[in-house]
């Protein structure tokens, strides 16, 4: 079973994301290029670049990093509504062609400041119905000519994208990653995504979702290659188990102090997947062997809500258990980002090859 390991590169206007130590020039092209090149040097296939209004444009950053690297694969997060399907299909196929087939795409349908760029928030059913149309149309534009499509949300007539993505065996176009834990989101994944990404839930929860998605593929009539599965999670590793836990607890203590100062309320999140993570703390502070839920109490959102903590051997053992459930794509991170690209790449990845 071939495994993929990606890192995470912050794409933020303000420094200090999740406790990162970089301040001056933290989001400069030189700094981001350094991080991308370090992924190449330390065993990573590339990195996820986050998206959201009020952040630097993710596709532009991904294009710049692809131009300054050799093997780095930017996993560019994009939103239907911010992009029109034909516009995105053209931009993405151009970047994929110019980079020699290195583009990866993460489709995001969650909350954002939609009104700031002229989009509108429908209900959950509408949001995922639009995402489904977006995925279907982009796939057709990448692989067909003279595409005519009339949907509820998007339409094109006799549309042919000028450039074509790089096609290889098993890869007709850039791989499409997708998240979401609601029933509506899972139906989109089961039929139209290439990779379903999970956040750091315990093994029993992931096993249940994998089984459900496999059943949905069959019942809904998936037309593409079988859906693959991945994990997006923070991994805090140190030379010893004891040191890792001491550092993890110290980090959480700092987060708790910051919450007291700023009045942060992690329950502001409404997405189903985020709420599932926050609810884990009620089951215990440490689940399975080393899944640490305490960060979610103090503002660790998304992939920072739960952490895998321990020595490289401890974390590798845990990731193998996720692999045994059928997960083959892993997007890992910890801060400070630069130092942890090296540490996790050099100490953890060789144990998983």
Structure keywords:
alpha/beta; 353 residues
Quick check: average pLDDT?
92
Question: Which outline best applies?
Answer: globular
Quaternary organization: single chain
Number of strands: 13
Query: Which consecutive residue ranges, at least 5 long each, have pLDDT under 50?
Result: 263-268
| Helix percentage | 25-40%
Distance between the termini: 10 Å
Order of helices and strands: EHEHEHEHEEEHEHEHHEEEHEH
Rounded to an integer, what's the Rg over CA atoms? 20 Å
Order of strands in the sheet with most strands: 1-2-3-4-7-8-9-13
Query: How many DSSP H or I helices?
Result: 10
Question: Which strand-content bin applies to the residues?
Answer: 15-25%
Structural class: alpha/beta
Biggest sheet: strands, sense, closure? 8 strands, parallel, barrel
Structure notes:
With 353 residues, this protein is an alpha/beta fold. The protein is built from ten helices and 13 strands. The strands form two sheets. The chain has an eight-stranded parallel β-barrel with strand order 1-2-3-4-7-8-9-13, surrounded by seven helices. Strands 5-6 form a two-stranded antiparallel sheet. The N and C termini lie close together (10 Å). Mean pLDDT is 92; it is low at 263-268.
Please sum up the structure shown.
The protein is of the alpha/beta class and 353 residues long. The protein is 39% helix and 18% strand.
